[in-house]
Amino acid sequence: MTELLLLIVVALVVIAAATLLGPRLGIASPLVLVAIGVGASFLPVFAGVRIEPEWILAGILPPLLYSAAVSMPAMNFRREFGAISGLSVVLVVGSALLLGLFFMVVIPGLGFAWGVALGAIVSPTDAVATSIIKKTSVSKRVVAMLDGESLLNDATALVVLRTAIVATAASFSFWGAVGTFAYSVVIAVVVGLLVGWLNLAVRTRVTDPTVNTVLSFTVPFVAAVPAELLGASGLVAAVVAGLVTGIRAPRELSPQNRLSDSQNWRTVELVLEGAVFLTMGLQVKEVVTQVQEDHAGVGNAVLIAAGALLLTIVVRAAYIAPLLGILGRRSARTVGMQERLQGMQAKMATPEGTQETFAELNQRGPRRQPTARTLEQFTRRVTQGLADIEYFRSSPLGWREGTAVVWAGMRGAVTVAAAQTLPEDTPQRSVLVLVAFVVAALSLLLQGGTIGPLMRLIAPKPDATAAAETQAELTRLMELMRTAAQTIPEPPELTGPPAPEQFAVSKNHRLEVLHAQRSALLDARDNGTFDADVLADMLANLDAAEIAIDLRGKLADTN
Question: Where are the domains of the chain?
């Protein structure tokens, strides 16, 4: 027991040290942790260590993906959903099939089905590994695409892996596989929506921030476990629950609860991500030893892994090049609609104009009087459409962004964990596990070790235009907050010496102003009319101001 506690303490210290020292050394902290883990694997205390893969797939991935989904701007996720779905489904399936052919050829006696199984293991990018890209000067659209891809592609890969394993023992049905995938996703989405809604419904009634945060730690598992029991993807369920929470939490939970959530989840992310990379390094000696015992040849496995990594990069580049062209043409079409939408928005400045515009666009539909809610949704769609056009216009995807998307597609510890879920009777199992490990290690070393310098090399130089646009957006945002504050009438002036009643009136007025401003900012967030990061910073400032007012009120009550 004492040894275990000591190892946990040492691991936490190592994670903290790597996080601090990695950037100073110019090395991504995940690479530092993998190297430390590899070195530690040769110590006697770690002899024959084997990490149960389910601890990573079912114990670590759901909370990490849930936390990433909570913090991801939902509007950017919606805007990039076409690219995200292609990267996380089409690219993963296509890569798995092509890699299956490759592995079938270079590993004698393996067979296509087992080759696809290994291809599915090494195809998806790792949600933890791609966190390296966020520390570079990459475009926000690239971050949104990579974040969304890494949230969903693990689920696709695991479904393909299960299907391939089943295909080795029974007749394979293409449409059966498609039906299984569709069922897995649909049921997971339903479960995730229900858990996300239930999560907020319960936590809204819990005022203690500490208890609220403890409840939040259960949400990814409450979503993932039932989904898995129903034969669906627990990871997708956890992601959907996180997206629902991220969208609704600022309207449902108090600033104190959300601040507690944010701080504690950042700590959890740091520890879990660090543990993932440490355990990845710790397993290297045991994996290599097993291959040597099976007389399979470590050198051949390393060469196969290098070829597989090269193939994944080539396939990814071949997919992303036309994808950027498609996205560019779509953006051009939407920009062409800008003038028409601006005219519609100007006409909809009055209720009558809104009804007239709605009727003009629905001439072929039933002649029913639209409800106030219908008109409100129509107005929001027009506003969102204009905001989407501005988003695509201001952030075009060129060769720099394409290079970033290709090179940031790193593999990580999830690949190693998934490989170890292969059945014990898998042909040449030890070799397949080593291939997966080497692919992940080479990917982190080659791509993760060079992504920072590469982005600094190809990043465009900042210009005065971008700075002016940012300043103009801040000015518009401040004007929005000023307008929202003016909707709250000033409190009546109280004469006489200061009294508790005066403080209470002033406090309530200030809180009402903050609530009105927050509501305006959240409406703007849902419409997509401002940059997501700028809005997040402004919302954080409002939360800090409200927390400070509450603290002053508590101090005044105690005096």
Answer: 2-328+395-458, 337-394, 468-558
Would you call 434 helix, strand, or coil by DSSP? Answer: helix
pLDDT of residue 559 exceeding 60, the answer is no
Q: Which two tokens stand for residue 476?
A: 């518009």
Residue pLDDT, tens place only, 13-53 = 888 888 888 778 777 778 888 888 888 888 777 766 667 77
End-to-end CA distance of the chain: 48
- Residue 233, token pair as written in the block: 């993807």
Q: How far apart are CA 388 and CA 438, in angstroms?
A: 41
**Whole-Å CA distances, 341 to 61, 381, 392, 480:** 42, 10, 15, 21
Cβ–Cβ under 8 Å, residues 219 and 232: no
Tell me the per-residue pLDDT of 98-142, one tens digit each, with 9 for 90 and over: 999 999 999 888 888 889 999 999 998 877 666 667 766 677 888
Q: What is the DSSP letter of 370?
A: P
Closest CA to 128 of 49, 28, 202, 197: 28
- SS3 for 473-493 is HHHHHHHHHHHHHHCCCCCCC
Distance, CA of 549 to CA of 552 (rounded, Å): 5
Q: How far apart are CA 101 and CA 357, in angstroms?
A: 55
What is the full DSSP assignment across 256-322? Answer: HHHHHHHHHHHHHHHHHHHHHHHHHHHTHHHHHHHHHHTT--HHHHHHHHHHHHHHHHHHHHHHHHH
Q: pTM for this one?
A: 0.87
pLDDT of residue 119: 92
Say which residues have a Cβ less than 8 Å from residue 347's Cβ, sequence separation at least 6: 353, 356, 357
pLDDT average, residue stretch 336-355? 76
Q: Name which of 205, 95, 120 is nearest 415 in CA terms.
A: 120
* Secondary structure percentages of the chain, helix, strand, coil, to 5: 80, 0, 20
Structure tokens at 181: 């995938």
* Rounded Cα–Cα distance for residues 100 and 120 (Å): 8
Tell me the two tokens of residue 137: 């000067």
- Spatial CB neighbours of 272, under 8 Å, sequence gap ≥ 6: 60, 63, 64
Of the spans 21-35, 89-103, 516-530, which averages the highest pLDDT?
89-103
The Cα 420–Cα 52 span in angstroms is 8
2-328+395-458 maps to which CATH number? 1.20.1530.20
In this structure, how many other beta carbons lie within 10 angstroms of the beta carbon of residue 142?
Answer: 22
- The CA–CA distances, whole Å, from 151 to 12, 326, 421, 445, 503 equal 26, 23, 20, 22, 47
